[in-house]
Amino acid sequence: MSLNLDESLHRLIHCYKSEIKNAITESNLSLHVGHIRALKCIQRIPNCSAQIISKKMNLDKSQIARIIKELQTKGHIEKHPNPDNHRSQLLVLTEQGKQAIDTITTLDGETSLKMTNGLTEQQIHDFKHYVEIMTKNLCA
């Protein structure tokens, strides 16, 4: 059995990222991957703050501050006072941000369908299972 998964993984990641970037460009969203990941965090995590996004995305505070400022400038998010901690602010999607997330969700779904074309449900399930194990092994 070959343990050299690196080339296969690099090719898969490269092709996936290229496909997503092309789909985003064609949709005229003008968002980069960091913006999209942050928007997804804000959508999925209740009472989301910059600190939570920083931990989730494994980026430093200055990088997250820049992303948040850009998303605010684009009108995708707003900051609201955190009632539990006066030193932090909660990040909330605007209607424009919700529309962007809807578009991103559609593009993600289309890309996933294209990527998994020809695979059975069991193969997809197994792939996800193996990816989770490998991720835990590397990120533990």
Automatic annotation (TrEMBL):
Ribosomal protein recorded as keyword: no
Identify the stretch annotated as signal peptide in this record. none
Q: In the UniProt record, does the keyword Glycoprotein occur? A: no
Q: Which InterPro entries match?
A: HTH_MarR-typ, WH-like_DNA-bd_sf, WH_DNA-bd_sf
Q: What terms describe the molecular function in GO for this protein? A: DNA binding; DNA-binding transcription factor activity
Query: What keywords were assigned to this record?
Result: DNA-binding, Transcription, Transcription regulation
All copies of the HTH marR-type domain together span 1-136
The family database entries (Pfam families) matched by this protein are listed as: MarR
State what protein this is by name.
DNA-binding MarR family transcriptional regulator
